[in-house]
Amino acid sequence: xxxxxxxxxxxxxxxxxxxxxxxxxxxxxxxxxxxxxxxxxxxxxxxxxxxxxxxxxxxxxxxxxxxxxxxxxxxxxxxxxxxxxxxxxxxxxxxxxxxxxxxxxxxxxxxxxxxxxxxxxxxxxxxxxxxxxxxxxxxxxxxxxxxxxxxxxxxxxxx
Length: 159
Description:
alpha+beta
């Protein structure tokens, strides 16, 4: 399997602290992009990652990191309201979202339902490579699938 290098970035978290992907070299990272704070599917996905974070963290001290174009203050409210136990990063200009292929433009159309952030998740290995990509995911059973794949990937990497 050919792995691609995960694009590095530095973005502020929900507390305004700058975080870089390179800060997590040596650890597994579950990086997920979501459309909007405090919407039904985004709440469900965030709460599933929150509830299963204790399992995810067992795999190579893995970290969950969420990215969205919302503001730091919006992410702070979202994180506090739902007691999120992982970082929520603000990509206000959607530059990082675009780097990861999770931004869909309206391509000049006045109205396009596909416009905005695509729900993508990436498992990044301890060397900074994308080990698994989930593009345009459905929230249902997604976190469970990530956990299963993370376990399989870690087993393969440690063999």
